[in-house]
Amino acid sequence: MRFRLIPRDEGFYPLFEKQAAHAAETAIELEKLMTSLPVVAERVQAIITAERAGDEVMRAVRSRLETSIVTPFDREDIQYLANSLDDVLDEMRAAADSALQHHLAEELPGVTEQVALLRRIAEANVELVGRLRTLDDIAPHLDAIDRLESEGDALFRRIMAGLFDGNHDALEILKWKDVVEALERAINAVEEASVVIESIAVKHA
């Protein structure tokens, strides 16, 4: 058994877990926002508050990276994972901001499914990030996130095809396009975080 003179800094794990939890909670709020149009400003503010809390976690990760001597895994992986988790929150805020700015009042077919899928993949991410400490039995969670991201891609294409089917005016297309694309980017950011965790697991196998 090898002993370390300087122990690894285990303080990154709760930060990642907090960030994943923020994302899952924000996805719930975003789902409520997008399934009860017209947009309610108070619900958008709740999402903005969560995104700002995520920024605080991001700053804590960066500060810890600057002061830690021995990190639990590669520094670049820590930074990449933190960035990906932060991107999830950023894109959810972007979707909420766009919905408010564009005064969305009527639902677009498929978006209810899209925000529900975002919530599900964010919840799956909480389970995956919770296993980062040990990297035990992560395959089912990686598979679940990959499957949901693939569903998200197919749904995104279907929503965009419907948006450009000739039944929507130019202004409505512009309004919804911003929101739908931000939701798609949020889903992709969760999948990117899972790829980092998979890479970490391979390196430490």
Features:
single chain; 76% helix; 205 residues; mainly alpha; 6 helices
Explain what you see:
There is one protein chain. This protein has six helices and no strands. Helix 2 runs antiparallel to helix 3. It starts with 11 loop residues before the first helix and ends with a helix. It is globular and about 55 Å long.
How are the secondary structure elements laid out?
Blueprint: H1 12-34, H2 41-67, H3 75-101, H4 111-129, H5 139-163, H6 170-203
Helix pairs in contact: 1-2, 1-3, 1-4, 2-3, 3-6, 4-5, 4-6, 5-6
Integer average pLDDT: 92
- Rg calc: 18 Å
Count helical runs.
6
Q: What percent of residues are in strands?
A: under 5%
Helix/strand-derived class?
mainly alpha
Helix percentage: over 70%
The protein's oligomeric status is single chain
Question: Based on CA inertia axes, which overall geometry fits?
Answer: globular
Summary of the model, kept short:
The protein has 205 residues and is mainly alpha-helical. The protein contains six helices and no strands.
